[in-house]
Amino acid sequence: MFQETLDQLKRSLGIMKKDIRIYYLKGPVIIFGVLIPLFLFLAFLTGSRNLPIEFLVSGLISMTILFTATSVSPVIMPWEAQMNTLERLASCPVSISTILMGDMMASFIFGVGVTSVPVAIGLILGVGVIHPFVLAMGIFVAAVCFSFLGLLMSTIPTNAPSNVMMLSTMVKFPLVFISGIFIPVENMPYWGKVVASLSPLTYFTDLTRYSLQGSHHYPLTVDFAVLLLFTVLFFYLAVKLHKKTLPMRI
Question: Average pLDDT of 214-222?
Answer without folding.
Answer: 92
